Amino acid sequence: QRVLGWLSVFRGGFPLAALEHIAARADPELDVVDALRGLVDASLVGREPSGRFTLHVTVRDFAAARLAELEEAQAISEHHARWVLAVARQSAHSVVEQESDAPLDDLRTEYGNLRAAMRWTLERGPADLLLSLVVALGTVWFWTGRIVEESEWVEQALHRPDLTASRLLCHAMRHANVFALRRRDYAAVAEWTRRLRTVGAP
Question: What is the value of pTM for the model shown?
Answer without folding.
Answer: 0.87
